[in-house]
Design brief:
Number of strands: 13
Distance between the termini: 25 Å
Order of helices and strands: HEEEEEEEEEEEEEH
Number of helices: 2
Largest sheet: 5 strands, antiparallel
Keywords: Membrane, Transmembrane, Transmembrane helix
Shape: elongated
Mean pLDDT: 74
Oligomer: single chain
Length: about 280
């Protein structure tokens, strides 16, 4: 009797070990292997935090900050900051925006809207739930409005060799592309540009436009030209992590791209295969 019980327990133990091994194999396929990220394609940035800072430009910098280039290096995307030109009207604020330009010539291919920013705050470009978003300090001033059709998290920012910038969700579906909102050569901060008064007629000279400025004022230096790319092709440039005036961007937690539904489905599959193993006597 003891011998029969011992053999029964041994048989059941073997079954349990086989089922556990089988379940572990399924778990490995469904959970572990997908977490091993494939190589990110050239000209692509993967979002890893909820608010991922791609570039910043300080008030006194004046130099555009590159953050992405196409795989061939033909096109480069910058975060650009311009002061309001003398005599252009407005409130004397700066303008921060994204510009995609031909790397060799500096020719503007696409621009985001001229977004007014305080001349005391750092401008930042962030990859977040709104797609690309420009901040004036901690205040959002423009975003792409990118949205996944199935409400999947936005995960990839890419630049193709045609110069089009695109955002995709976690399953690779297109959520936004720059070519759907064409805009270039706005001249942000110049007379007549968006947000400022119309350009002056040829016979009108703004105060301060000549060489002899009143009250001993010094003539402002011309805005430096955009740097032409000497960067590697398909580069994702150094991504900033701080340096913003005012309150910092608060949500820098790790970005989890998997949805609860997908996790629940995987658990159900593991349990289902485990019961199948029991049913077939493994």
């Amino acid at each position: 009797m003891h011998c029969i019980a011992f053999h029964f327990i041994l048989k059941q133990t073997k079954k349990l070990i086989i089922i556990m091994s089988y379940s572990s194999f399924i778990f490995l396929i469904l959970f572990i292997l997908p977490s091993i990220h494939a190589t990110i394609p050239s000209g692509t940035i993967q979002r890893t935090t909820k608010q991922q800072i791609l570039a910043t430009v300080a008030p006194t910098s004046g130099q555009p900050s590159p953050f992405l280039s196409s795989p061939s290096g033909k096109y480069t995307a910058y975060l650009v900051r311009h002061e309001t030109a003398p005599g252009a009207g407005g409130f004397g604020n700066d303008f921060c925006y994204i510009q995609v330009q031909e790397t060799s010539s500096g020719q503007s291919l696409w621009e985001s809207e001229c977004a007014p920013a305080s001349n005391e705050n750092t401008c930042a470009l962030v990859f977040d739930d709104n797609g690309l978003e420009v901040f004036d300090g901690s205040n959002p001033i423009w975003d792409t409005g990118a949205e996944s059709a199935d409400d999947n998290p936005l995960e990839l920012l890419e630049m193709v060799d045609e110069g089009d910038m695109r955002i995709r969700d976690q399953i690779g579906e297109l959520a936004w592309k720059a070519s759907d909102d064409p805009r270039a050569n706005q001249g942000c901060g110049e007379p007549g540009s968006p947000g400022l008064a119309p350009a002056m007629p040829p016979f009108a000279v703004p105060i301060g436009g000549g060489n002899n400025l009143p009250f001993g004022q010094q003539q402002q230096q011309q805005q430096p030209q955009l740097q032409q790319g000497q960067q590697n092709s398909g580069a994702a440039f150094n991504q900033e992590s701080g340096g913003l005036n005012g309150q910092p961007l608060v949500d820098n937690t790790a970005f989890f791209s998997g949805s609860c539904k997908s996790v629940e489905l995987k658990v159900i599959v593991v349990v289902m295969f485990s019961f199948l193993g029991l049913g077939f006597g493994f």
